[in-house]
């Protein structure tokens, strides 16, 4: 089965940077799209960024465009989220999530990690 494990979260001051990692396992062809979501207590989970497992078609929510970069290392089966110019509004629990590579549920994020906390102080 597909497993996702996030790491790299922590506390940083505004203007700083962090790089989140998502280690994947469960098969070379187990994931179609891999992405990052974040959630703040009292708010609904929101989409942050996503990319095809092949590394194509990266997409970002407007709030992070120009500051965050998503990338894939197919050799290490790991997805990264480089976060630069962080501000307090980025504080949240960040989750890695993936979709099946094909089939009727290929558009759904069925695989989720446990999350890693990011806290940005002013």
In short, what is this structure?
The chain is an all-beta fold and 122 residues long. Helices cover 0% and strands 49% of the residues.
Question: What does it look like?
Answer:
By secondary structure, this protein is mainly β. The chain has no helices and eleven strands. The chain has strands at 3-7, 10-13, 18-25, 33-39, 46-52, 59-60, 68-73, 78-83, 92-98, 111-112, 116-121. The strands form two sheets. Strands 2, 4, 5, 6, 9, 10 and 11 form a seven-stranded mixed sheet that branches. It is globular and about 45 Å long. The model has no long low-confidence stretch (mean pLDDT 94).
Give the topology, please.
Layout: E1 3-7, E2 10-13, E3 18-25, E4 33-39, E5 46-52, E6 59-60, E7 68-73, E8 78-83, E9 92-98, E10 111-112, E11 116-121
Parallel strand pairs: 2-11
Antiparallel strand pairs: 1-3, 3-8, 4-5, 4-9, 5-6, 7-8, 9-10, 9-11
Short descriptors:
122 residues, mainly beta, seven-stranded mixed β-sheet, four-stranded antiparallel β-sheet, 11 strands, 49% strand
Overall geometry: globular
What's the overall average pLDDT, rounded? 94
Structural class: mainly beta
Helix and strand run: EEEEEEEEEEE
Oligomer: single chain
> Spans with pLDDT under 50 lasting ≥5 residues?
none
Q: How many DSSP-defined strands?
A: 11
The separation of the N and C termini measures 41 Å
Helix content: under 10%
Count of helix runs = 0
Largest sheet: 7 strands, mixed
Beta-sheet strand percentage? Answer: over 45%
Computed CA radius of gyration, to the nearest angstrom: 14 Å
């Amino acid at each position: 089965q597909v497993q996702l494990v996030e790491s790299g979260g922590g506390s940083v001051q505004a203007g700083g940077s962090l790089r989140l990692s998502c280690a994947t396992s469960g098969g070379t062809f187990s994931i179609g799209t891999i992405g990052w979501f974040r959630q703040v207590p009292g708010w609904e989970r929101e989409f942050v960024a996503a990319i095809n497992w092949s590394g194509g078609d990266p997409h970002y929510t407007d709030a992070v465009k120009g500051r965050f970069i998503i990338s894939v290392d197919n050799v290490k089966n790991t997805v990264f989220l480089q976060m630069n110019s962080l501000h307090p509004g980025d504080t949240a629990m960040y989750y890695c999530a993936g979709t099946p590579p094909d089939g009727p549920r290929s558009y759904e994020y069925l695989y989720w990690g446990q999350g890693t906390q990011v806290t940005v102080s002013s």
